[in-house]
Amino acid sequence: MNKDQICKWIETYRSRSGVPIMRMRKQWHTDTPSVQGVWHPFMFKDPQINRKTFPNEELSRFLPAEPSATEQVLKMFEEQKKEIPSQGPTKKLHSKDDVLQSK
């Protein structure tokens, strides 16, 4: 044995607690590494993508997961417009005197 092997064995005996070493084994086995199965990035992609030529404008554009804040506000505005029926032109008061005269 050379010097390095002797040092490794001495370090092993020095750091060992004296408790008998026992091999730990799990009691179950799976063929796949996770409960969900083996996943890859193309798992739920359309197979027709394989036939496209890249760069492709259709596949390169950004598809937001949720509507933007502006889109949400515009949608709320359109819904409110549908709920409130049009009452025609409203009378506009131009000054404080007009308000007092209307009472």
Automatic annotation (TrEMBL):
Task: Please list the GO terms describing molecular function.
Answer: structural constituent of ribosome
- Which residue ranges does the record annotate as region Disordered? 81-103
Gene3D superfamilies on file: Glutaredoxin
Identify the domain of life: Eukaryota
Q: What's an example GO BP annotation here?
A: mitochondrial translation
- Alphabetical list of InterPro entries matching this protein: Ribosomal_mL43 (IPR039927)
Annotated Gene Ontology cellular components are: mitochondrial large ribosomal subunit
Q: What is this protein called?
A: Uncharacterized protein
Question: From what organism does this protein derive?
Answer: Mytilus galloprovincialis (Mediterranean mussel)
